[in-house]
Amino acid sequence: MSIFTGKFRTVLLLGLTSLLVVGCQTHEPVTHYEEPSSASRFAGTGSAVGDFEAIANYLREKEVPYLRNGNEILVRLPEQINYRVDRSHLSSNASDPLVHVAVAMSMYPLTRATVIGHTDSTGKVAYNDKLSAQRADSVARSLIDVNGIAASRVKLLAAGEHHPIATNRTVKGKALNRRTEILIGPSN
Fold first, then answer.
1. What's the burial of 131, exposed, middle or buried (CB within 10 Å: 0-12/13-18/19+)?
2. Rounded Cα gap, residues 140 and 157, in angstroms
3. By the 8 A CB rule, do 182 and 38 touch?
4. pLDDT at residue 8 above 70?
5. What sign results for the dihedral spanned by CA atoms 96, 64, 8, 176?
6. How many CB atoms lie under 10 A from the CB of residue 109?
7. Burial, 187: exposed, middle or buried (Cβ in 10 Å; 0-12, 13-18, 19+)?
């Protein structure tokens, strides 16, 4: 059963508009730890959440690829678990990175995840928007149903073909664009 119905679809479209604005930001890879300011901590919510350093260190230790985006962590699922053309089902090798994301979220219960689905530019825009929503849903379902993260802590965004990370002119570039990202941040 899909969660993309009624009011949620409207919220999803509003979220997609927000993503288009946020998507213009540059994401730099985290190569070293910098002391976070109080604004860049998950805190503001107190020691129950812990800080960005612990989550980043855990993901680094588990070799989960991520980028730092202000006080949030953008997990880009590894290339080898990207989607086939016109598919939204996760491959079996997607479980490890998703388990690590779930563990990090479980360690810091005041975090939330925004799951962002993407497509390449094959097909019509409206179809790709729907397919990217299905991709986000498949990852969210894994976090919720398989890994025990509360549904209230997981939000979905469908980015369609609008935010490529590679060219859509090559087979390899298209494969890289068929992806899902997880933005982990404070729950406030």
1. buried
2. 10
3. no
4. no
5. negative
6. 15
7. middle
